[in-house]
């Protein structure tokens, strides 16, 4: 591992970029936050002023090319990821790209191919749930084989509310993409067919938005998964997952850590958003990225995982439009990666 701290630049400093900047500056070992970039330069300047020695670089591509930046955390909107991650790969910079890797399967494949040409793994995708202690324990139990083969997974993914710009297809591409990754990871298999259905929409969604949605994944090898995504639930941030195996089942996300009785009522707290529920997962994710980058490696979800997830979501968006099951079309892994890389 390199003795010097990893000099990290953050591209896009909205909700997630600002949260990661604080994490890098105060909670992650072996990294120095050195630069931030956002087209909203006032927002970038305001964030930089909260730390010592953090520069504001006007253009995201200039930050990526900057010799004083060793590694880049991309937290811009998904539509900017392809260009920015390709630039990171071109400059040989380790990259942690927030999900989704890009907007569709084809563009994600271009990232996988660019990384392959660069000759070494550089891209980690921000599927933080793999680092969440509860999900990690579920995965360990499933992989131990003690419960027999995993057969089914049931997911619930609810947000308090979504902005008016959050359209029906974004529920697939930006929200369901987490369950796509979780299910590929838990089953150790690709999704062969995806179906996305919508019951009557809630009156709390913007006009024309199909919310909630129900997705069904048919996994290679015969496993199956169901997911409810409801981004205007009006309740809070709820993420639950139940994995059903031959001799038992595992449930996470019951939120039973603190249970209070008062004023004739009992119960716990439901967080407002992901930063609270997955705070520990993001810390572990970014620490794993920094540690791996200093060793010249990539930890956790790879560019291929990002590609597989966007390919499944591309098929999911088609299914949402037609109501029919859609096969997930992917390039052959051995052809693209040459059989070596994970
Ligand atoms: N892992 C998670 O749980 C999680 C949670 C929320 C968001 N995300 C992802 O993080 C990313 C950012 O989401 P957010 O909620 O922080 O969004 P946001 O809208 O709060 O912030 C986006 C920021 O990017 C800036 N921006 C716009 N175009 C840009 C460009 N071309 N280059 C650089 N910056 C640009 C905007 O000015 C804004 O400051 C998205 O990919 C989103 O899907 C992940
Ligand atoms: O971008 C966010 C983020 O990925 C959250 O983890 C998810 O719960 C939301 O649905 C999505 O909009």
Please tell me about this protein's structure:
- GO terms for molecular function: inositol 2-dehydrogenase (NAD+) activity; nucleotide binding.
- Homotetramer.
- It comes from Planotetraspora kaengkrachanensis.
- It is a single chain.
- 38% of the residues lie in helices and 22% in strands.
- The longest helix has 20 residues, at 168-187.
- It contains 11 helices and 15 strands.
- α7 crosses α10 (303-322).
- The chain folds into 2 domains: 6-129 and 280-308, Rossmann fold; 144-273, Dihydrodipicolinate Reductase, domain 2.
- 1,2,3,4,5,6-hexahydroxy-cyclohexane (INS) binds next to α7.
Key terms:
single chain, 342 residues, alpha/beta, Rossmann fold, Dihydrodipicolinate Reductase, domain 2, 2 domains, seven-stranded mixed beta sheet, six-stranded parallel beta sheet, 11 helices, globular, binds nicotinamide-adenine-dinucleotide, binds 1,2,3,4,5,6-hexahydroxy-cyclohexane
